[in-house]
Amino acid sequence: MKRCLVFLEQREGVVKQASIDTWNRVQELATLRPDITVSALLAGPADLRQLEGRMAGTGVLYLASDARFSRYNPEHYQRLITDIMKREACSDLFFADTVLSRDLAPRLSVRLKASLLSGCSIIEDIASEASCTRALYSGSVIASFAPRRPLSIYTTSSRPTHPIIPSETHISLVLLEPPGFIEATLLPVVCGMVMRESGSDVTEAGIIVAGGRGMGSAEDFEQLEELARLLGGVVGASRPVVDEGWRPHAEQIGQTGKTVAPALYVACAISGAPQHLAGIGSSRKVVAINSDPHAPIFDVADYGIVGDVHLVLPKLIEGLQEF
Ligand code: FAD
């Protein structure tokens, strides 16, 4: 019997969709392998009604609702997860591939002496010869990996391949008492947390309107903001845009930025360099607007418009305003 634990990441009490996708993906694997059981761990106070109809399958949800877990503290999170892994004899731990898990998962792999399989785009199976795949060298190579140790930690952008069926859901709740270690913090927090004003998060967005260097200036992003508003999405950016200071680093998408998985990705004046494509591979539909018909972004786009963004965007915005 293999026991899996999925870490549900929350911020300000809102559970990340990427974590729920990870849970549903692991549940999907469990339907193929009856010897797998799946549990989830949520650290910090959160309203559980937000999970209704979004998490499929069967399992236990461990809730450590102590307010001191509401913000990420590597020491507290490591000890909490380690305790549950040991108590439940879990062999596989799953995270969504996020900024938090990129910090936490390597720490845990050392603490638990576990194999770390990070940035998995697809998890095919667990405990098999090739259990997951990930892109290397900015997507030029797709490699298969298998864990070498009895314990494995995966960070994944993997999404469920089939729609979830909430009617089959049976998740029981276990409330965890505040652990004793939380009183004694060995790691002092010397820096504060800076919250962005806009609160929009490209990693969670269902629709992203992203702009590249070809937009021309910071002011030209007002059009992208308007288009994003009309579509109910958020604005993203390529690296040169961030380097120029036109947009904040939190919006950068790609190898050295965020990995995103929206239903719709609109790439405006973005060439489609491998380092940018490395961050958008899980997008369901890609629309590209570029004046160069040979721009590599068209190789990955589902729909393409060859044209000047300064002419195309006002027409798109006008059309949507009338819609
Ligand atoms: P450009 O390559 O300059 O492309 C601009 C595009 O706009 C062109 O295709 C052009 O045809 C089009 N265009 C120009 N004017 C118009 C117009 N008026 N209307 C329509 N189209 C127009 N990049 C990232 O994005 N994210 C990363 O995380 C990242 N990480 C990197 C890590 C490393 C180690 C390295 C070496 C590079 C990284 N890069 C990253 C940079 C990457 O290699 C590219 O340089 C970058 O993605 C290009 O950005 P861009 O498409 O906005 O600009």
Automatic annotation (TrEMBL):
One of its GO terms (molecular function) is flavin adenine dinucleotide binding. InterPro entries: DHS-like_NAD/FAD-binding_dom, ETF_a/b_N, ETF_a/FixB, ETF_asu_C, Rossmann-like_a/b/a_fold. Binds 1 FAD per dimer. One of its GO terms (biological process) is fatty acid beta-oxidation using acyl-CoA dehydrogenase. Its cofactor is FAD. Pfam families: ETF, ETF_alpha. It comes from the Bacteria. Residues 4-185 form the Electron transfer flavoprotein alpha/beta-subunit N-terminal domain. Keywords: Electron transport, FAD, Flavoprotein, Transport. SUPFAM superfamilies: Adenine nucleotide alpha hydrolases-like, DHS-like NAD/FAD-binding domain. PANTHER family: ELECTRON TRANSFER FLAVOPROTEIN ALPHA (PTHR43153), ELECTRON TRANSFER FLAVOPROTEIN SUBUNIT ALPHA, MITOCHONDRIAL (PTHR43153:SF1). Belongs to the ETF alpha-subunit/FixB family. This is Electron transfer flavoprotein alpha subunit. It comes from Pelodictyon phaeoclathratiforme (strain DSM 5477 / BU-1).
